[in-house]
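[User] Once you have settled down, look closely at the record that follows, and write a paragraph about the fold.
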Amino acid sequence: MSPNAETPDLSTLPEDGGPEYNRLIFTSSPYLLQHARNPVDWYPWCEAAFEKARREDKPIFLSIGYSTCHWCHVMEHESFEDPEVAAFLNEHYVSIKVDREERPDVDHIYMAVCQAMTGAGGWPLSVFMSPEQLPFFSGTYFPKTDRFGKPGFLRVLSALHAAWRDERTKVMTIGEELRGSLHRASEKRPAELDASVLDTAERAFDHSFDSVHGGFGGAPKFPVPHALSFLLRRHDRSGDASLLRMAEHTLASMYRGGVYDHVGFGFCRYSTDAQWLVPHFEKMLYDNALLMTAYTDAFLVTRKEEYATVVREIATYILRDMTSADGAFFSAENADSEGEEGKFYVFTRAGFLRIVGAEHGEALAEYFGITAEGNFEHGNNVLHIAVDPAEWRRRHGLSEGDAALLLNDTRSRLLDARALRVRPSLDDKILVSWNGLMISALSRAGVALDEPHYVQAARLAADFLLNTMLRNDGSLQHRHRAGETGIDGFLEDYAFFVWGLIDLYEATFEAAYLRQALALNARMIADFHDAERGGFFFTAHDAETLISRTKDVYDGALPSGNSSAALNLIRLARLTGDAELERLADATFRAMGQQVSSLPSGHTVMLTALDFAIGPSREIVLAAETLEDIAGFRTVLRSRFLPRAVTLFHASGQQGEALRDLVPFLSTQRAIEGRATAYLCENHVCTAPVTSAVELSTLLDGSR
């Protein structure tokens, strides 16, 4: 059933869902609700499922996915909606369905299992395990029957049922060995990290860089926004033009490719080819948040308006299509509509020309790469910028202004036409973690582009999370949907939300946001920190016990909780002068040092934190009677890329008391003779205060 479909009166249904539904009908996850009418006797992740498996001596089939996953839909249609498959599962297994976005702890562990067993991973994730949660076989998508050398799901089910029945000792030995490997992986020996690992990462990116199409490696090609932000930071430090070239070429190629939605804006998940042309069409909140940040960084470094345009377009998409009535942000949009991937997004040549009109139709088809043959299935086209825009304008006699008006009108026409189609389903759950990333992105973009409504959108989202997702005891919940809030927060919820609150404080200078960042950071330390070995566990000390308690440090599609926590600790230490936070960051670097050193390019947020810690960092205090008095200073700061800086606003008199409680050293940094005053400290040395924007500008440029 559609996650947005109306659900029945649950009070009238029996415990197992009755003849029309299974137990997933009682959940709130859009992904689980999609499977609520399957003939498979699904359980959500719960003790009742494991108790049933123990009582009936059956293995567990664990299926993990998410609502906008194309191949999850395919496997559901082929197997989970199939009576034959369902009958076999119901007779010989206890089946559990997990939304990986709601339970990233479960997904994290069993994805590691799949990667250890098969050398690869992805979703749908299929795991077979004992009632004690010990895995003995894993894979991803299986067709119902054998196809192209891939074993069919029915054959896999039958073989594993026989193994469970006839080779139990071997099966359990596999499970114990996998649990041991997970445990060992979380107990890496500490190792020091120094500046050399940053240089190693740069060389790795240079080696894998695609100089033709941008990006790193071949197909499929994923956006790597935090890696690009890392390269921009390294360029800022060294002036190495090759680092800027890699970042810029990738950012420009992604935007001009089909992986970007040139009609409704926003980025799709990844490109199926090396050219950024044909995307996997799902859109994720976290991708767009991290990409907004990367393009904001690129604009600050280069001042190129193209990057500012991308930031504004992503914000338009998020605020139009991905924002709840309460101001929080939804999780994702599906790749599929009407059973076809990409159907909502693509156009035939004839359809395109009919919509845009005859006068400029041929020129626009040339611009967007629209052909009769198409570049996608069934003669359809994925829109992309197929020409050099300046050369295209010259060839068609268009001024820059006229071209902009024409393209904007064309996008409007195409957007209206698309609105008449069946839209892909929306995963409307609200996750604290991903919202934290978007709060950060909007806060930074709002400052950099002088767009106050972006900052206001970030404020509304943060206030919703603080009012709805924060318990009275100061702990966070993970997920909100349809009026229901639940699931204890994970490390990434605290780390990403603190990240967002720090950026929101620097955008608004409202002390309450810094206070909340410090409080949540303290709670994260209390609940997740490993006092013995350093670093942070994925789950809290009192969380549900799984087969292993892991620490995540790899910065993949999402930054890891440990990397984000380390960056937050350094920033908060610089903001408050709290040396204990800096010590905890250093302990995190050492705890994760062995893993980071083994693959530096896979840990770019951790390296960003390390780069910040090595410094020189800048601490900037703006002191004045009111915020309006520091407008000139803020203009100076807005015009610069300051990747290792923190900024505080110290209001005079009682107005500044709330911040002085958090940052005691501010008591000596006040407005001089009632005039707005800027204080700059760098590398543990402070310069004389200045009272004009020109002086601050000179100071910042000279300190480089």
User: Anything to note?
Assistant: Residues 367 and 388 are 8 Å apart (CA to CA). The chain has a mean pLDDT of 95.
